[in-house]
Design a protein that fits this description.
Spore Coat Polysaccharide Biosynthesis Protein SpsA, Chain A; 60s Ribosomal Protein L30, Chain: A; five-stranded mixed β-sheet; binds magnesium ion; about 30% helix; single chain
Length: about 400
């Protein structure tokens, strides 16, 4: 990532609609405050250099608990409006000089690392990029008497989410200008960018990236009935050593006196993980989707196979909970490359790196791995899919 990226997480609102006696961003979901989950999204992401929380001055104690042991910039206090709070966060980031800033509402704790990737990518050649999802209901405009004035063309409508991505200096300018001119009340940052005449692009949002607003939203999030179908898949792959000066393992190139023979790049770890994901989906195996007889997969980089399997999970509305892989070989040594492999695998499938386990073992000189004839890999994938009866 060439440009530096910072995130502002806005958590200064009072959140009264969610019920209860403290703000919704501090309510818990599965034992964790909503704000902690939203902060973790960015704090865990290696691409985000600085995470700036913006909170309400009354919430210090709640915040301390929610932010415990997270790598964040010191909190700043927000203002009377969301717009003023974002401005406070941006001003606090000036000394860090990021090129790109992502602005995220604390009340959206279910955004995924893949969505953050899309945000960063989308703003690379734009001033502003915002996630949106198509509208499936018919939308009508009404007058004061609730009489329908117009049926809007829903093909042209998008429901807008966060994180919204901007060139940092551009967004800062716009916020300062709006404040100087007394323009308040913009409900998102894209609206400020529009007011300033900037080009705002919409990229693909996520249906699961809901904003927790009402008690019903919290009830639904608590039970997560939509992703109750917990599944585990396993994968096994073996490739033989042959001529070569490196092996591809876990998406990382490791110099070695021999190579691995295969139709693709013969990355046993990525192949085993691909099969584990496909197994969890009960959706065939790597050979079905990428037949070795098809010349287009010749020497293919195996990250494509794994990314494909991860995308199949997402297409089914699912989430990847965890991946785990064990590599069996006498050589090369895996330890020095372990974290690079975990990082690369996490990147390929779009999960946080602490959801990827990777171990290595020898087979005590026994069997084909012990004789140095090849490398084996065993993998497990745990995913959650939307529940459907049957
Ligand atoms: Mg293979």
């Amino acid at each position: 990532m060439a440009s530096s990226v910072a995130a502002v997480v806005v958590a200064a609102g009072r959140g009264v609609r969610a019920g209860g006696d403290f703000p919704k961003q501090y309510k818990e979901i599965a034992g964790e405050p909503v704000l902690r989950r939203s902060l973790l999204l960015f704090a865990r992401d290696a691409r985000i250099g600085a995470v700036q929380p913006v909170i309400h001055p009354d919430d210090d104690a709640l915040f301390e608990r929610a932010a415990d042991r997270l790598a964040l910039l010191p909190r700043v206090y927000g203002g009377a409006t969301r717009q003023a709070s974002v401005r406070a966060g941006l001003e606090a980031l000036v000394s860090h000089g990021p090129e790109i800033v992502l602005v995220h509402d604390a009340a959206r704790p279910f955004a995924s690392p893949a969505l953050i990737s899309r945000a960063i990518e989308a703003v690379t050649d734009a001033d502003a990029a915002i996630p949106g999802i198509p509208v499936s209901d018919t939308v009508k405009a009404v007058d004061d008497a609730d009489q329908v004035v117009e049926t809007l063309d829903r093909m042209r409508l998008r429901m807008i989410q966060t994180p919204q991505a901007f060139r940092f200096s551009t967004l800062l300018d716009v916020h300062r200008r709006a404040a100087a001119e007394g323009r308040e009340g913009f409900t998102d940052d894209a609206a400020l960018a529009e007011w300033a005449g900037l080009k705002v692009c919409v990229f693909e949002g996520e249906a699961g990236n809901i904003k927790l607003t009402t008690p019903e939203d919290f009830a639904r999030a608590q039970s997560e009935p939509m992703l109750a179908d917990l599944r585990t898949g396993t994968g096994l792959d073996v490739h033989a050593f042959g001529e070569g000066d490196h092996v591809a393992l876990g998406g990382v190139r490791i110099p070695h006196g021999r190579g691995l023979i295969g139709h693709s790049d013969a990355d046993v770890a990525l192949h085993a993980l691909t099969d584990a994901l496909l197994g969890a989906l009960a959706d065939g195996d790597i050979g079905v989707h990428f037949p070795p007889s098809d010349p287009q997969w010749r020497n293919a980089s195996s990250d494509r196979f794994l990314a494909f399997a991860a995308e199949r999970v997402r297409r089914r509305g699912g989430r990847i909970n965890h991946l785990d892989v064990t590599i069996v070989c006498e050589a090369p040594r895996i330890g020095p490359h372990r974290d690079a492999m975990r990082t690369r695998i996490a990147e390929i499938v779009g999960v946080a790196v602490d959801r990827v386990g990777l171990k290595a073992t020898t087979s005590e000189k026994l069997g084909f791995t012990g004789r140095g004839e090849g490398i084996a890999a065993f993998a497990t994938a745990t995913i959650r899919l939307p529940w459907s009866p049957g």
